[in-house]
Amino acid sequence: MEEKIATLGMLMVPHFSVSLDEVRLKTGKVSRRLRIDHPKAVAIVPVMEDRQIVMVRQFRYAVGKETLEVPAGKVDKGESVESAVRRELMEETGYQAGKLTRLLSYCPAIAYSNEVIEIFAVTNLEKAGQPLDIDEISSVEIKPLSELIDMISSGEIVDGKTIISLLIIEKWFQSGKLRP
Q1: Are 88 and 69 contacting, i.e. CB atoms less than 8 angstroms apart?
Q2: Which tens digit of pLDDT belongs to each residue from 61-113?
Q3: 180 falls within a domain
Q4: CB atoms within 10 A of CB 129
């Protein structure tokens, strides 16, 4: 177990905070740890007929390019995970969620962040309007799951939450746990 000795520095922004802490290791040695406190987030696999998946394309500043991803976002303070799934899906794609199925949760950067992402499959979709998040989303694209899996293998899809989400939904389809 590591014991926090002191916080050496902190950066606080509206949606998360970062701290640099000095810690004592179990051997007694002193070291430093970076920690990002991040709210829970959701990733959504919107499934249409014939295993077509609704995806979003958006520019990611950190990597300097557009990426194809599953819709996703943070859970707002006081908001339920299910409400966040419905809100983010509508904001990013213009679709209303029908049935929600929780697939799994995971920690995307466990070495330095406490973020947890809950992945949901959403079926019985209904087009309700245009995406509201026009500053973030470049386009909404509907693609067959098989093509998306190929895009993972070819390196076209590189986002971690998207890769995990698509591979787990494929596994759920194969096992019969989920039907479009």
Answers
A1: no
A2: 989 999 999 999 999 999 999 999 999 999 999 999 999 999 999 999 999 99
A3: no
A4: 10
Per-residue b or e along 49-83, where b marks 16 or more CB atoms closer than 10 Å to that residue's CB: eebbbbbbebeeeeeeeebbbbbbbbbeeeeebee
Nearest to 58 by CA among 133, 146, 160: 133
Question: Do 75 and 103 reside in the same domain of the chain?
Answer: yes
As to burial, measured by CB atoms within 10 angstroms (0-12 exposed, 13-18 middle, 19+ buried), residue 33 is middle
Domain count for the chain, please give it: 2
What secondary structure does DSSP assign to 67-91, as a single string?
Answer: EEE--EEEPPTT--HHHHHHHHHHH
pLDDT band at 180 (very low <50, low <70, confident <90, very high): low
> What does the alpha-carbon distance between residue 95 and residue 142 come to, in Å, rounded to a whole number?
12
